[in-house]
Design goal:
- With about 300 residues, the chain is α/β, with parallel strands linked by helices.
- It contains seven helices and 16 strands.
- The chain has helices at about 125-130, 130-145, 160-170, 185-190, 225, 260-275, 290-295, and strands spanning about 5-15, 20-25, 35-45, 65, 70-80, 90-95, 110, 115-120, 150-155, 175-180, 195-200, 215-220, 230-240, 250-255, 280-285, 305-310.
- The strands form three sheets. Strands 3, 5, 6, 7, 8, 15 and 16 form a seven-stranded mixed β-sheet that branches.
- Strand 9 (about 150-155), helix 3 (about 160-170) and strand 10 (about 175-180) form a beta-alpha-beta unit.
- Helix 2 packs across helix 3 (about 160-170).
Length: about 300
């Protein structure tokens, strides 16, 4: 019986649109066919987590429930039909919808095996948990933008978790990247491969860059309209903030929403383990989850990726 299961520590919500708080939740169910039960060692926090609580992203949350759609840990139990993972394996995943109705900000979570990647040696749980949502979003956006070596890309909010990874992935393919970010982040982003960094605090930032970009990836809210005139005729614009402008001058414009993808996550994890994809996680104990969530959703994370840990 569900009521007889032992409690697990978690950070989440007790009901729809309730405040984020520390909770004790029932032990998740045993994994069904195609599922894994994972002991969470670390879980990523992002601005998207505020959308899970009845605010625009239906991931099947059934409060009281933990938030969080990404994390890393060890397999505790394997459901029927899963032959490629075993108890004790280290894994990472982005999961949405959540098959157990509860997320990664908990001691244990139920996820789908086919959305899960093996965690390579050399990638610790904190760095692994920092990767899934930001990494998959950056990779999926760049794959759809389909740029070639020597082409030019504009990225807004290059200093954030997704932007910094997009800069690295694009630069590795020989794409020339101009990014908007704070002046304090400029040196870091140039070191990650950006060709030019423009201070987004300048209200005239769009006039300070050379236009004719082959594509734009807009990650900062309300920058798509400013970016569109900087894209050449026939170019492409991908918005991660659901505000892609109407298409004009033959420019293809769309909003992108992340999808779980284990194969892509394996690729990203291997690059991170090899050190060719750099992450900047800040581990925070699960017990400080509500404050960490507040920092992220109010933009006070300072360009760091906050990761909740069991400790």
């Amino acid at each position: 019986m569900r009521g007889q299961r032992s409690a697990v520590k978690a950070c989440g919500v007790s009901g729809a649109e309730q405040e984020v708080a520390l909770l004790e939740l029932p032990e998740p169910s045993s994994p069904g066919p195609g599922q894994l039960l994972v002991a969470v060692e670390a879980a990523g926090v992002g601005p998207w987590d505020q959308l899970l609580n009845g605010a625009g992203w239906d991931v099947g949350l059934r409060p009281p429930a933990a938030l969080g759609v990404e994390g890393a840990g060890k397999v505790l139990a394997v459901g029927a039909g899963v032959t490629w993972f075993a108890v004790g394996d280290r894994v990472l995943a982005h999961e949405a919808p959540l098959p157990g109705g509860s997320g990664f900000w908990a001691e244990r979570v139920l996820i789908n095996a086919d959305h899960t990647a093996a965690c390579p040696p050399g990638l610790d749980a904190v760095h692994a948990a920092a990767l899934p949502v930001n990494g998959l979003t950056a990779l999926q956006a760049l794959e759809k933008l389909d740029l070639s070596r020597g082409q030019r890309l504009l990225i807004t909010n290059g200093g954030g978790g997704t932007g910094a990874l997009a800069i690295q992935l694009a630069a590795a393919e020989g794409i020339e990247v101009t990014a908007t970010a704070s002046a304090a982040a400029a040196e870091r982003l140039l070191g990650l491969g950006a060709t030019e960094v423009v201070d987004y605090h300048d209200p005239n930032w769009s006039a300070k860059v050379r236009g004719g970009f082959d594509a734009a990836l807009t990650i900062a809210t309300s920058t798509a309209d400013a970016a569109l005139p900087l894209v050449r005729d026939g170019g492409r614009l991908c918005s991660l903030t659901s505000d892609a402008p109407p298409e004009e001058r033959g420019i293809t414009s769309w909003d992108l929403y992340i999808e779980p993808n284990a194969a892509q996550l394996v690729q990203l994890a291997e690059q991170a383990a090899a050190g060719t994809l750099k992450l900047a996680p800040e581990p925070v104990p699960l017990s400080e989850g509500p404050a960490a969530f507040a920092r992220v959703v109010t933009g006070r994370a300072g360009g760091k990726k906050i990761v909740l840990t069991r400790a």
